[in-house]
From TrEMBL, chains A, B:
Transmembrane segments: none annotated. It comes from the Bacteria. HAMAP family: HisC_aminotrans_2 (MF_01023). The gene is hisC. Belongs to the class-II pyridoxal-phosphate-dependent aminotransferase family. Histidinol-phosphate aminotransferase subfamily. Pfam families: Aminotran_1_2. One of its GO terms (molecular function) is pyridoxal phosphate binding. Its cofactor is pyridoxal 5'-phosphate. It catalyses: L-histidinol phosphate + 2-oxoglutarate = 3-(imidazol-4-yl)-2-oxopropyl phosphate + L-glutamate. CDD domains: AAT_like. Its EC number is 2.6.1.9. GO terms for biological process: L-histidine biosynthetic process. This is Histidinol-phosphate aminotransferase. It comes from Acinetobacter silvestris. Residues 31-356 form the Aminotransferase class I/classII large domain.
Length: 362, 362
């Protein structure tokens, strides 16, 4: 909206300069094939439904009461599934909130934090919001992280693994090298997509006092609609996150979010089966797109990053949209010849491939 | 927890100084009479249950999708109930988050913000968190706000109305006087408890370009477990809140919170009946406590602020606790001879009165 200078006087001066994050579109259109925001194509565990039903018992009377501000049951469920202690867990209203708290808790330093030039586009937004200095580190020409670049003075490091929107994973030995080279900096590994085939750094938490691992239930647990994210780290880092959280909002997790996420973490069998289905569908999708001439980066995520050298993919995205299929196109340097495509069910992926083959590229 | 200086080096320097908010206790004890966090004694509207049931249909498949980042349906429901436009509404994860965004959006100024010395104890916490300068303005000896004190240079004003923990309401003419005296400052009226008998400033929003009214569903709508708060203001102020929100967390409202809150706002009849019941119970409770020798401040909230001149009320609170009744005691200057007691059902209030009369004060 257009706000007059006169009315802008009410805004905090620093807020007038903010450039907020723009999330992937959530169109309110029926029968759309939505492959633009990396949602899981399968419903959450059936145990989630049971857990929410339990809250509704007795006229949902329990809703009149505040939730547990510490979400202890949820921390316990995550700790058990991740094989760490409850004192290693921090939870928040989606991993976006957890990341916001991470930036405030650790990254407001004299030195700039380091992150890749092509990565989650919320990082510069958080940085501006909290006054964090930043330095972007270019990925190489294959969109890979070069560990040597992360051996310079810094106020912290954040690495998305697998990276987004590129889908490429970094191995644990490379992550250990970054951790060891930066003993006085907090190194955050943002693992939003880790469950689709990459190696998690959670097992390194006991070994490195400077490591924070961040995960979400939005992708691999089919709970994007619920807003539950978490961080895993040693207790002296969790304490900083709790201090920040309790200076911002004491009760960020509502009763439904806590109960539903607990149920999801308690159903490991369902979780693993769903991840395997997505991985299998991804491999089929990649093969089919390569057959159509696409170049697809090696993905360990529930999305792929694909280019079609002969075409303007921005136009391609617009043509797909006309056919009721939405994918994500970033009109940014270095990646404006790529589309980020969420892996759907085999049927959904086939619709995408068929539409490309029979209509758009025919 | 005790963190060594050596491990503190990982924290952002400013975070090491934070003094987080301490919420009212949420004990996990059965059969406790919990009159300490101003929760409503009645369940939410039955329509809330139906709305959540609808999300669970089809294996809760919709949970795999992100919620509407703008929570448009919720804004529409609030706008209709409050008789304002959708463009006047901002929503957040509880009014605590809404208030946090308000502090960042408007109060990071050269001049200090003004608030009462006795009021919601989260205000100084937000201020420290965002680097907001503050000046506390003493209430008078009757715990009332003196409007003249809010006519000095400032970077913003926040008034809780009715005030907490004092329960005393400020009239709209006094609020208009504050608004008119401060045409270049944002004046926030925090109306968490307004539905229990005070006058809301929402009707003034059209008239004052510097007014923000903040409300919550936690008290009068029995949805503390859900975390839904909102602000009402002219669009140029809402835009600042949206810029802040979208620099922090794009999707703060989960699907359950949106749907359940919408259902609550659509059931005005239930809402009004519940508020009237709480008000009636409050008046009975006040009369019964006065009979026992308590002095009770004139309450327009769902809690009362009461002292017993002959007793140390801190000890009284401990004795009540031994009897399974929790009330809130603030060991702070000026109010350490008062207890904040949430209004329960008539039966619950009677248990409190009987316990005082027959056991503690017998």
């Amino acid at each position: 909206m257009n706000i007059t200078t006169e009315k802008m006087r009410f805004w905090s001066p620093e807020v007038r300069e903010l450039k907020p994050y723009v999330p992937g579109e959530q169109p309110k259109i029926q029968n759309l094939l939505k492959l633009n925001t990396n949602e899981n194509p399968y419903p959450p565990s059936p145990k989630v439904v049971e857990a929410v039903q339990a809250i509704l018992a007795d006229s949902a009377d329990v809703l009149r009461l505040y939730p547990d501000p510490d979400a202890t049951l949820l921390k316990q469920a995550i700790a058990k599934q991740q094989n760490v202690a409850v004192s290693n867990i921090f939870v928040g209203n989606g991993s976006d909130e957890v990341l916001a708290h991470i930036f405030k808790a650790f990254f407001v330093q004299q030195q700039p934090i380091l992150y890749a030039d092509i990565t989650y586009s919320f990082y510069p937004v958080y940085s501006q919001f909290f006054g964090v200095k930043t330095q972007e580190i270019p990925l190489n020409d294959h969109f890979e992280i070069i560990v040597e670049d992360y051996k310079q003075p810094n106020g912290g490091i954040i690495i998305t693994n697998p990276n987004a929107p590129t889908s490429i994973a970094l191995g644990l030995s490379a992550i250990e090298e970054v951790l060891q080279a930066n003993p006085n900096s907090v190194v955050v590994i943002d693992e939003a997509y880790v469950d689709f085939g990459a190696e998690s750094a959670v097992d390194l938490v006991g070994k490195y006092e400077n490591l924070v691992v961040c995960q979400t239930t939005s992708k691999s647990r089919s709970l994007a609609g619920l807003r539950v994210g978490f961080a895993i780290a040693q207790p002296h880092l969790i304490a900083a996150l709790e201090a920040v959280k309790n200076s911002f909002n004491s009760y960020p997790m509502d009763r439904f979010a806590i109960a539903a996420a607990v149920a999801s973490f308690e159903d490991q069998t369902y979780f693993e089966a769903q991840c395997q289905k997505v991985i299998a569908s991804r491999e089929t999708l990649v093969a089919n797109l390569e057959e159509l001439g696409f170049t697809v980066l090696p993905s360990k995520a529930n999305f792929i990053f694909a280019s079609l050298p002969s075409k303007n993919v921005g136009e391609l995205a617009a043509q797909l949209r006309e056919q009721g299929i939405i994918v994500r196109y970033f009109n940014k340097p270095r990646i404006n010849q790529f589309l980020r495509i969420t892996v759907g069910t085999d049927e959904q992926n086939q619709r995408l491939v068929d539409t490309l083959k029979n209509t758009i590229l025919a």
